[in-house]
Design brief:
alpha/beta
């Protein structure tokens, strides 16, 4: 028996020899938490959701929901008895039902987990008022995703499973809908597991985030820690938040540690992993770690500039051909062109020194 609202113990999930995830341990301690599972396409995220929902059996291990076992090697609770709703990435609507009837179908199969929600509220929140009388083949893929989500929420499940729920929604609408859905799920305390390949989506929605790579759950932590303190080189490279440069550990005895880079000089901060003085390690440099300073004596050559709306990302080159990304606010007094020199504020201080 589990004291957590939901738990997977030593779960092995198998759809095929290439599509499997081994030895998953995951806990959702309290009702209403949102967990995201992040990983590349085809890594087995959907297989985990299907197994939790009861659509396929667990290979080994145990799954608990509300202190009761629902899956193990020797026990499989039927899907209709789990009070779990799964909203698929692909269109899973009833083709002969209008949109409004699909949504109301969720209400009919509700087992009632206690929260109150009106269909009209969800319809407005998801911007699907104009398509209620249409059939699934008459609406877009993004609209179908929103209808499927509405139907799932209306069934009042104990656990909501979402498979890439925003992947087909236009970017202009996606941020608003993600914000609204998150607020709704929190308001009604609907525990949710959402899978995605988009790290920004995973971090913005989750209380906790799991990273699945190479058939394993590599890290499960709050989004801040996954982003700033990846627990392996593998996770850091997957998140693709920066570059690795060679440094030497020169001070670890005080609260603030010191590293030495051949061009950037001394870099101070708190080492996430412990290394003895003299160690040669790879330091993760993320675009937000370095600060631009036009007056600095430390200048590197600009080899690329990308405009990202509120920011520019400059790529700088060292004399050793290392390429280093740096964020600069788009309203900075002037822009730097390719081949110009670009100043970096010294001494360099980075809160989290992530090294491997």
């Amino acid at each position: 028996m589990s004291k957590n609202f939901f738990e997977i113990r030593n779960g092995h999930f198998l759809a095929s020899e290439k599509n499997k995830v081994n030895n998953v341990n995951l806990k959702i301690e309290k009702q209403g938490d949102i967990v995201t599972l992040l990983g590349p396409s085809g890594v087995g995220k959907t297989t985990i959701l299907r197994t939790i929902a009861g659509l396929q059996k667990i290979n080994s291990g145990e799954i608990y929901l509300k202190n009761k076992i629902i899956s193990s090697e020797n026990f499989h609770l039927e899907p209709e008895k789990r009070n779990i709703a799964l909203s698929f990435q692909d269109n899973s609507l009833f083709p002969n039902y209008k949109v409004i009837d699909n949504i109301n179908f969720g209400k009919k199969r509700s087992n009632g987990n206690g929260f109150e929600i009106k269909a009209s509220h969800i319809i407005k929140l998801l911007h699907i008022e104009a398509i209620l009388e249409k059939y699934p083949h008459q609406i877009s893929a993004g609209e179908a995703q929103r209808v499927s989500l509405a139907r799932s929420i209306m069934s009042k499940p104990d656990l909501l499973l979402l498979d890439e729920p925003f992947s087909n929604i236009d970017q202009s609408l996606k941020d608003e809908i993600q914000y609204s859905v998150k607020n709704l799920l929190k308001k009604i305390s609907l525990t949710t597991i959402l899978v995605t390949h988009d790290s920004f989506e995973a971090f913005s929605l989750a209380d906790k985030c799991g990273v699945i790579l190479n058939q394993e759950l590599k890290q499960f932590d709050v989004p801040y820690s996954v982003h700033h303190e990846p627990n392996s080189l593998e996770v850091a490279k997957f998140l693709n938040r920066g570059v690795f440069v060679e440094v030497e550990v020169i001070e670890t005895d005080c609260a603030v540690h010191s590293l030495k880079h051949s061009v950037l000089g001394e870099i101070r901060g708190k080492l996430v992993n412990n290394f003895p003085v003299g160690s040669k390690v790879k330091l993760l440099l993320q675009p937000e770690d370095l600060i631009h300073d036009d007056q600095s004596k430390l200048k590197l050559e600009v080899i690329d500039r990308k405009f990202r709306g509120t920011n520019f990302i400059y790529t700088l080159k060292t004399i050793h051909d290392e390429q280093i990304p740096v964020f600069v606010h788009s309203h900075h007094i002037h822009q730097h062109e390719k081949n110009e020199k670009f100043g970096i504020k010294t001494p360099i201080f980075i809160d989290h020194l992530v090294c491997f």
